[in-house]
Structures
1.
Amino acid sequence: RINPTVFMFFFQGSICIKANAQSCGECIQVAESCGWCSDEVSFLSSGESKSARCDDLQSLKDRQCPEDKIENPRGAIVIDKDTPVTNRKKDSKEKLKPEEITQIQPQKLTLTLRSGEPQTFSLKFKRAEDYPIDLYYLMDLSFSMKDDLENVKNLGTDLMAEMEKITTDFRIGFGSFVEKTVMPYISTTPARLINPCTGNQNCTSPFSYKNVLKLTDKGDEFNRLVSQQQISGNLDSPEGGFDAIMQVAVCEEQIGWRNVTRLLVFSTDAGFHFAGDGKLGGIVLPNDGKCHLENNMYTMSHYYDYPSIAHLVQKLSDHNIQTIFAVTDDFQPVYKELQNLIPKSAVGTLSSNSSNVIKLIIDAYNSLSSEVILENSRLPEGLSITYKSICKNGVEGTGENGRKCSNISIGDEVSFQISVESQKCPSHGKSEVIKIKPLGFTEEVEVVLKFICDCECSAEGELNSQRCHEGNGTFECGACKCNAGRIGRLCECSKDEVRTEDLDANCRKDNGTDICSNNGDCVCGTCECKKRENPKEVYSGTYCECDNFNCDRSNNKLCGGHGVCECRKCICDANYTGSACDCSLDHSTCLAKNGQICNGRGTCECGICKCTDAKFQGPTCELCPTCPGVCAEHKDCVQCRAFDAGEKKETCERDCSYFQLITVKDSSKLPQPTDQIFPLTHCKERDANDCWFYFTYAIRNSTKEVYVVEKLECPPGPDIIPIVAGVVAGIVLIGLALLLIWKLLMIIHDRREFAKFEKEKMNAKWDTGENPIYKSAVTTVVNPKYEGK
């Protein structure tokens, strides 16, 4: 498994190398991990191009580039304006102008950006108490809104009284709209242009948009002017409200908008026309998004089409206007979808006669003001910005949720972590300005962006330096930065001369056919070696014939991990030798426990025992799987010498005098392995009489020692009497058991027979009639002549 840190190290290194940067400025724009070595004396080796100066920082240090020669400029953040957010209570005697109230901090800062290195700063937002509010009420005056107009006539003073609970600085204005004054939106007959309503209804002439009352703090003036308004009429159901919204947004001076909270209440009981619908009336010019109010009337409705939703979103955002759609229940789904497209907007359900409009406005304002959403101006190409919000109660948000915080009350403070990252330097200049602001608020943060496009050492560069082949380049940051059309390490060639045969010949080793050994490119008659994915792997040499990664390997390690690869040959560390530095000269790994090398049964080669006898094996030739055991090998000799018995009794003196015999009284007196520094074997063997004897075998300083227990451990003989008595008793007991079993079986059999007899007796039936073959011995004869007289 690859370590992620190592992977990233190699990955970044390959990015820096692959970029083939020819100057310090190009190098630092590749990635934030890339640095440039400006050491002009000893950094580059033979065959290396100047692009090898660009590498990741650790690789430059590993290649012995002095730290003061590594160019690695970093970005920075400077706060230019940092006015604290305003802390003020509503009942405070101190009255501040809108421009004196601060809700966002800081207000201006400068970021110095290097490609790939994000700069993060903190932005604080706090809802100020008693913040001024401008509210413009834009109402649909088509005929279906007649009863609504009656309820709005007293809206000014009632709403002023209600808004005093929120702010002491409140202004209100009023405008109305109907529809474009062309067919088929209205009837263009002369009579209908004067009074578009049918029957006896008295209506005013149709109009597109009218600014009735500029924003004012006089509620009674609002009531007076609204009371003078009359209903108008049109033909189709959708209204021209988008034309009116556009004019309210862009005509700041005529409406009287201040740089405070701006609310637009859009009241209607119908849908809306949008871009493209104007073609029905022959209007094809797109809405220009400019103010066209003359005498407070929109005069270009017949000339410009309705604005698109996207156009409205842009203008409302540019002018920091928050929209409240007060619509009837029938059109709630339509305006809910519109709310999803317009940031910082709300939808409220308007009763059939607008009697609940004040409550609707208060609820919508509380909903809008409880959420802060950050937006930024258009970003320069190659720039990205990310947000992280830290909201109320420490709730964090990232991604799109990182731009906003919800459920904010007056006086609550939230913060945002904003990261700005550049991927490249701008083509048209070294500085840009972007602005970040909360939607619906006039305050904004100005962010000045400065880009690091070159190294500090480039400022000291020597133009047309003689060190760059007769002045064909600028010598800066330890290398030549060639003029246009010149290449080479010292700008010694023009691009047209690079591939000539004469120059290529200088790049062939020993007049061979391979240019730069197929490991590099011939530039101006000099080999510039290729770069590898792994920055640790390097081609080198005059003809790129050398490298540091094609040496012999051992255990899958270059030079066995015990040397360095130089020009395809291993230079081994001390105590190692061999083509792959895999042969250790240290014999400590061959020492056996007895202090002998390979137990005296082999030689130590490259730190490994080579046993001279094939039957021995193991790390120190200590094992012999095919040899008889030590105990079995010496059993007969120990038996004959210690007990004058065994198979070698007759030849004991001749065959068994090779060891020294020591007798002990019992097995506890035998030597133990933990007490010895030499190999020791414990043995337990049995003789022909089934007696056990115990001994140990060891070799001490070439002397074989045998310790043996002087007494044999023989099993005792059998006791005859108990055996005979046991047999007799067993026979008797078995006989008695058989008799008892027989008797038990007979009793069971008799009982069964008796039970059977009793059962048959009970079932017997005796016949009490005469015997059918019985004949009586008496014969009765009747005298026929007898008359009974």
2.
Amino acid sequence: MLFYICTDWALVIVEMHPHMWAKHNMFFKRIPHELLLSSVKHPHLTVDSNMENLECQSKDEDNCYEILKQEKKAATKIRLDLLALWFAAGKRNSSHFRQLAEESIASIFRLLTIPLMGSQDIFGYSDLQHLKIRLTEYSKKVDLSNCPQITPAILLLSLLPSSYIMDPAKKKIIEKFFINSGGPSKDRHVFPQRLLQTTTFEVVQEVDISKCWRLLIEHAVDYFCKSFPCLRILKAAYLLNIGTISFLQLLEKFPLVCEIDLTVDSTPVIPALFTILSSNPALIPPVPQKTSIINHKAVEIMPFYKFGPPLSNVTRLTLEGRTDVCDSVLLYISRFCVSLCHLNIKGCISVTDVGISDLICRCRKLNSIVVCDTSFGINSVQALSSAISDGGNTSSVHSREKHLNSVASNLQELHMGGCKGVSDSSLLELMSQTQLLKSLCLRGTDLVDQALYNFLGSSLEMLDVSNTKISGAALAHVVHRNLSLKCLKAKDCRNLFPDNSCIEKRECCFFSLHEELHAEFRKTYSLEEIEFGWGFSTSSLSDMEPIMMSLKTIHIGLGGMLGEDALRKLPSTCPLLEKIILHFQVISDATLTNMVSSLINLQELSLCYCFGDISMSSFKFSMQSLTKLRLERVTPWMTNADLLILSQSCKNLVELSLLGCPSLNSDSQEIISHGWPGLISIHLEECGEVTSNGVSAFFNCKALEDLLLRHNGPGLQRNFILKAASEMPLLRKLSLDVCDASEGDFDIPDYANRYSLSTVKIARCKSQRCAFNLPAPPRRSVHVESLVLVWNSRDLTRTVVKERL
């Protein structure tokens, strides 16, 4: 066992080339030379080794490092073409890995941009070995996520025996298939299965192909079915080429699969947040399809009894954000997934309350349901609350027995945030039956105090009652009974404390609340995340101090008032903090400096609309753990020089958001892209003249997934959307403003050319008439009307919305 542990460890060392780290690690030099050498030479290690040179090395401990250095001499030893894009991009600012990262980026983009036609010599290689994903008989998980360069041909090549590549005849067949599988059409060259047989990897139980948008699901399913017969978990998130038909194929071909994740980005057009002015599908010709079974439209109209699908072992199904999921899909799921325990349809705005309730009535084994921002309403609540009866007759069931024999009584997770269709009376009934809940989200619902008083559970670990009308007393009732609570979110709750303007009275009320709970909280020390707003104050934090030592996340929203003393004590009160989000707080330079220098685990810092004398001196400390930084209306003094210092202090950022930095200019793009080449999210709004001369340097952030540029200068090219999608192959979300367009408008790419894009939002400010011919907005509005483009598995929907202020 030790041998294989060391083999896996050596694999990580050699694969990622962290020999510089190993050289300074005190434990590495203790590894016996013979053991490390044997590990590297072992055939199951997925990195080939330069054996001739290794054999000649002396056996003193310093030469352990030479074993690792040998890999650097052969570029083909590491499959640079197949590294995850985010990993390669993130290493471009590393002094040790920069050359490796640049080579990897170049290799990845050769696969992405060069048509797969003609000889393989166009890639600079004489064989296909460099394109094989490493798999062994011991592989349990195949993780290809974030690799947009993966194609059906590369996947198939990896599943074929290595001997095939050495056989000229079989190699010719492989190359022919590889050449003909690169076009945009799904009507591809069919692989000759009779001539070549794939290898079977019976140990593989999990496959992740998330964000591999060039990998056609129809081909992938065929290959996985033959090579991974024991597959149990399939993750295929953020792929818009997986529609209902592919989903059905997946379920039919994998009887052992128990977990499926088909998450996509939730549409920003949530009815509770926007007024929809108009919506219509774009007139885009459908993408040609050729599948081995019935097409998508037939699925929706064919009677389900004709399918006769086999029973399924699927217990966890995630369809979050999928707008192509409608009631007919839910009906199919309810008849097919008879063992379903967990269902996530968050943001599936095409389903109805009736459709959800029908599924609940059929899937009686459900113990976890996530329906946030859907039409989940009274009918669905009634389905959860009704007694389980095979005969469907519940009239004779005693009230208490009914409560103990309903789907609600078995639920451990219920997330229904943003569901406005649930009445207060139905919530009263539902809460009285959910004694086993461990995770409960009621954000933005018509939750009233009595519903919380009806809740008798004592196992809650997460509770979200944000943006509701509950009182402090009702919240105290729940917290008092659930001493294992780890996460408590009560932001935007205006009735949490008495409705008066007297700060002293509010603090006294909150003190009374925690005085009551103080003795119970001291027994647990389990609280890890809190979100509060209205009424939360310095004394509130002081009263909670005994339970704050384990806190990892603190979020203080509008209405919360932490004083200077409380913020200054935060690092000592909560030494394990990883995430700090502060809105409308007064914070000084000294306090912020104390935070960033003392909290060594801090990973996310968000300061939004805060006041105080913050300066650049607060950000001159090294913050190597920080990966997310949001500064909104707190650094109006920021210049390019300051931005450069920030990039040197926070080298590992993957998300950056700046709002209100008017001194920045077009040179800021180079500072950002060079300092943080691995960014996956950039939000810049009202940041001077950053885009006045167009956008070029941002395209060097090759792993970007989310880009927001608004009011940074009218220099964005007309073809910016298509250009951004082609230069940044993982880009899914793009937010722009018409006033930044150099020609007053943007070209909209068609489906075939939108790459991985799922959502584009184009806003219009009050000073400019909209390019999509809408009436001029009122002068009191700023960002009122927006054009939202949402791509799903079949088409493009154009929606014009007006934000509800």
3.
Amino acid sequence: MSSEGISPDKVTYINLLDAFTTPSMLDEGKRIHKLTVEEGLNSDIRVGTALVTMCVRCGDVDSAKQAFKGIADRDVVVYNALIAALAQHGHNVEAFEQYYRMRSDGVALNRTTYLSILNACSTSKALEAGKLIHSHISEDGHSSDVQIGNALISMYARCGDLPKARELFYTMPKRDLISWNAIIAGYARREDRGEAMRLYKQMQSEGVKPGRVTFLHLLSACANSSAYADGKMIHEDILRSGIKSNGHLANALMNMYRRCGSLMEAQNVFEGTQARDVISWNSMIAGHAQHGSYETAYKLFQEMQNEELEPDNITFASVLSGCKNPEALELGKQIHGRITESGLQLDVNLGNALINMYIRCGSLQDARNVFHSLQHRDVMSWTAMIGGCADQGEDMKAIELFWQMQNEGFRPVKSTFSSILKVCTSSACLDEGKKVIAYILNSGYELDTGVGNALISAYSKSGSMTDAREVFDKMPSRDIVSWNKIIAGYAQNGLGQTAVEFAYQMQEQDVVPNKFSFVSLLNACSSFSALEEGKRVHAEIVKRKLQGDVRVGAALISMYAKCGSLGEAQEVFDNIIEKNVVTWNAMINAYAQHGLASKALGFFNCMEKEGIKPDGSTFTSILSACNHAGLVLEGYQIFSSMESEYGVLPTIEHYGCLVGLLGRARRFQEAETLINQMPFPPDAAVWETLLGACRIHGNIALAEHAANNALKLNARNPAVYILLSNVYAAAGRWDDVAKIRRVMEGRGIRKEPGRSWIEVDNIIHEFIAADRSHPETAEIYAELKRLSVEMEEAGYFPDTQHVLHDLGKAHQETSLCTHSERLAIAYGLIKTPPGTPIRIFKNLRICGDCHTASKFISKLVGREIIARDSNRFHSFKNGKCSCEDYW
């Protein structure tokens, strides 16, 4: 090659440099660069420009800058080459510096200059710079240039000023396909699918034929669950256009269908694509993993390698996301081994994927090993470990990591707070938890919706609904999760009526409830046995077609069962087409609560025949059913089979059920031996369970031992004091009863008063012992007096050992006759139709004398009385109770 005014040596170097076009050629290009420097040719404008261009093509921006500095007289071409390289590689500040230097050096700017520098304006921070460049374009007379106009539309759209982009678009004297693509891309990027689609239709009406890039932008706008119809229409338009759906377009279609929830159509596109790349495979692997098709995801992962495509970090992260439970741990470890074999650098994103996989699969130690092996961690690495420790009971470790991450310079984000707040109200780290909450409040993060929601949840779990309500009220913006959390909190803390009130407030504020709202609302109805309100909620669920959801169905079963309507619970269960372990557990637990152990065991056997594997909750319900019925042998057999036959490790809750079963059967020595031989230290609940059994059978010595151990673990639990006091009262040890009361008063511990309630005509009527506050008190007490006379004639005799105060005999008998459950029954008798069941509910255990009285009343009035107390249901009918006096 020869060129006028250029020496042969220069021409040779320019031709050589023009041949280097890829990163793999960079070393050879640098060797030529060195030779030009040695020969003093690098300062020549043509050679220097060739050097800058070569470095840019080979991806070495630093060498391009070095070559640029060596040029003596720089012209517009070399400036443009460097500015384009800097903008392309994200060195935007340096691109602006070179642009301003170019202007100050008096170099005449051209179209290429403006197109290159506008590419550097890619975020909202660059908007002001973009506006200044726009003014320069106007001054230089380039405003009417279509290419520059398109670049300005893209710049304003990327920088977040869509109104300005739109204004420019509509004022352009001439628009081409790229103009339309630029404005559509702006709205697609902002997830304004409606406007993107409107522009697409306008574009077609003006006779502009969409191209491949147009479709790519539109498909990105349609990549969400609500955009399926539009996405499907775009796909049909692509087919009609004759553009082949390969490469980027095929991948965009897969991604759109996957995100719209139509995995089958994504799979169809995948299978119809001939040239599938790593992105194609990654999209389908991620889709199947996200939709729970873990086996398919792993199968695709293997097929990809069979086609000699090497997985990248995204592939491994996608397939790891499918490992979501302990059963998938071995598979997760195999994938981890494959990552190691591949020689891939364990970057922070892939490291985080491994940490999360091990946490989901229950191996916190493996997660720790990965965490400590990472050379670089980010805030999500720390957040994952904090969440893992919180979920697996290592509360103090979670708090230690929370402070440690900040000491190492990582600022917590919303998800970090959501994770750490799970442990802040646990009894194991209450003081440290208060410090974390104080930190969050002082930093103002509670005003963030996500963090505020997590705070509401934390306060609710600790029973601090006043604090939860305060956070809720202060939140500047609330979402559906905020409402669900506060409703669930009130329901969990026995304030069901308040929860229902909040649900009505939510509707008044036009917040649309979702399935989680209905689950919380049903739990609220269960907590105060509001059957009619529960039925209204059920009707709304059917109206919204949510009854098929697994958790909604289970909550409905639980609500009907806890409201005493076992038949309707069974009906809901029967109508659920696709049942899983949650559904079966709800029905088994319903029968357990009602003391129908044979029914619960029958359902357990049916569940197995249906191929549903029981989990820990299943065994808690079954063991509870055996406890209520005194089925010691059956309970022992089921407990023993948990690990050996079903692979379910017994938890402390399961041991507690077995302790209760043995204690209630008077097998105290076996119960105590079991406690001492548990694989973990007994908690306060286990000792309280044993204490409850001692109260039933009057075992004073063991009751004192159990109470002492329970109080060592939680000295502020009023139930322990009350149970021990009841043991003493039944034995007539009134001095000890008085002593316990003094201790409770000194420690500021209050006994929850006994309350009973009944729902009549959609209104809850609540009573306490000797209550005279009800507007129909006279009628209620008249009914009680009538019943007392008839009961005495039928052979009833008050059992005064259930009076917990040192009173005279006459006062003791009067006290028993006005217990809250009797007042509720009397009100039910005078306000509900004859022959219909009476459903009453009590927050504490029904007293022994009221249990006897209820049997007499059911026979005298010829009505079924269904009573739910804090432990179980009792169905009194024709003088007998469903518990067969074993309770």
4.
Amino acid sequence: MEIKKTTRIFCKLYLFIFFSFNAPIILFAQLNKSHMEIDVGLIVDMGSWEGRMMQSSISMAISDFYSVNGYYKTRIVLRTRDSKGQHLLAISSAFDLLENFNLKAVIFIGAQSSVETKFLGELGEKAKIPIISFSTHSTSPFSNKLYPYLVQIAQDETSQVAAIAAIVEAFKWRNVITIHEDNDEWRVFILHLVESFQDKSIHIAYKSSLAVSSADNQINEELIKLMAFGPTVFIVHMSPILASRLFMSAKKLGMMKKGYAWILTVNSMNTNHLHSSRSFEVMDSMQGMIGLKSYVPPSKELRNFTSRWRKKFLLETDMEVMELSPFCILAYDVAWGLAKAVERAWPKEILLIEILLRSKLKGLSGDFQFINGKLVLNAFEIVNMIGKGERRVGFWTPEGKIARELSLSNTSGELEDIIWPGGSATIPKGSVTKMSSRKLRIAVPRKHGFPELVNVDRNLQSNVTSVTGFCIDVFKAAIEEVELEIEIEVDYEFIPFLDATGESIGAYTYDELIDEVYLQKYDGAVGDITMTDNRSLYVDFTITYTDLGVGTIAPKNNKNMWIFLKPLTGDLWLSSAGLFLLTGIVIWLIERPINNEFRGPTSHQIGMIFWFSFSIQQIQLNSKENYIGYQTNNSIVKGVTSNLNFKNSNIRPFSSPEEFANALSRGSKNGGVSSIIDEIPYIKIFLAKYSADYAMIGSTSTTNGFAFAFRKGSPLVPYMSRAIAKLRENGKLMKLEHEWFKRQSTFASEDDDPSSVVKPLTLNSFRGLFLISGVSSALALAVLYSFKLYKNWHFVKNFNLRDIMWGRIKFVKEYLSINN
């Protein structure tokens, strides 16, 4: 009996323990049957290591969250699509998910251009759901006021630029070379780097770019060019896959030895892709480099998660990852925060985006909070690549300081000792031996008629070519300023843009010259080359070194009363307006009795009067007897004359100042022209020779002036622009102009002798036109009302006009009613 009693007691105890420990599980299972599934889209490149790692982190975050919060009524269900690294496929996947699932949010993972980010913002606005965008670029993030449903998690590249600039400044390097991946998003980073360096007087001696598809031999060729600069400082900004190939090639070429310094951006520092058999070779080629890493503060929770995640990822991929990237940790926190926001938003009628953006929590990455719709990483640790890994040597703080330790009290601006390439402890000098690995080829066009600007004199017998002119001297002076600034010799040669016979190549020389620079047959071009928007698509221009715009030159002492192409005085404009209005009234009076369009409401009739008063056809600026001259083959000026509505038959081309003067002296009636339109530099040269008889009567800034053209991405452009600005400020540019143009040009102004310049047309200049118009209008009215009076004479004859004032009003009223 006791055995049975003992057995019963044991069984009861077992059942009590069993239900005590398993009741929560059973309860959770029951609750789990009634939870609300919330669909969330996840679009990621599963072919990339970073994509797979972030997908794994998000998946673990969702699992961990509901393990801790099993009583929650909602459950996020990830609807994953593989973008395969293709932007169009990622976008189409988003549409597919929105069409097939009731999505409450979408998570995008992968680099996005500014255009794609804008599209995501508009997509969220249309669907009214949060679009969470993970991107490696955040140089100019969009405002959440513009796209309120776009949530951006990005690497803060503005802070990264400042951090790199601070490192270069800390080692007192004045010249560096950048190597970046050749696409728009990576290129924008370099532009911001240039701006940051300029503030610190740091010069980029050369900007090199490589396509991600570059073959090994292409990478070697580019590195061989860079070797000509000697041991110097390289800043690398590209994807890890391309960076690893670059490092291995540089190691083989001897560019990882003493004297070299390599700085890697956060994007280039990601070593988690090193899972292949070549990982040791890549790490060996990176010895001595320094780089930036986004900083995530260590914690017990982070260590625990990292350990669990590494085991899970190893089972899933059979690949071992040394450490999680900051983006993987952020992805975990964002997924956790999204799950929490979803629970709070359901089933209440509250926008999920509002709750998500107000979320605050202590995450694995630290304090988790969105600011203006963005979550950025802006603190960096500086590491030195040593052995099989890396060693932290300092920090860059959000306050813009470099320090050994991340604390407010330690902002010494010093780093721990660094082992540089070649195992050297000596800081590289960072000097650059020359601007380019070869002599720059600068094309020069031959200018007929204006040798003061640029002249190519080629002796076919001796095969000796000399290049002279104002443009050439400005270029030489600017190069001298550049060499003084960067302490580097710029080696170049002028190459005439001529064919074998010594003539200019092509019918439209300058546009073809720009094409040749674009095709990199030449490194640059010097001459009277006008900067235009279209040309800027193919080459990089310096700032202009001549006056802007075009002007008009005409003979002095011109008193012809029938000139209609000159500016008008104020009283003439008023008189003209009055005459046009009178003409409109006359037309209205004539047309109203027989044309229905001139009847109706008063406002309509007034509109018809003004339409006919100021119709464009009433004002004729061009006359068949007046001709305008322009410079032969100058497409810029010809375009200006076209915009001014001059007929082609009234435009005549000329090639030199002598031809200008000859045409102006003969005038339009004798086979010449009434005026010449050209760019200001040409007009200055003309007036330096012929200012006694001609003057510039007007100008407008419709062209950009002359500038030097270089191939796209040329490192010389910013230096040359600064040099030109300096030449203008110190007066040397004006001095060169005086030397070549002989003396200051003469321009028409209010202070000039009235008898020596062309003055604006006055009322007297149009007295003949006003007389003809006035007489014609008066005659038309007289004829009109003569016929009307004759037709209605019986009415006039019987009308009582004794009450003069009232009688006249009544007469006009009844008379007009009869003639309607």
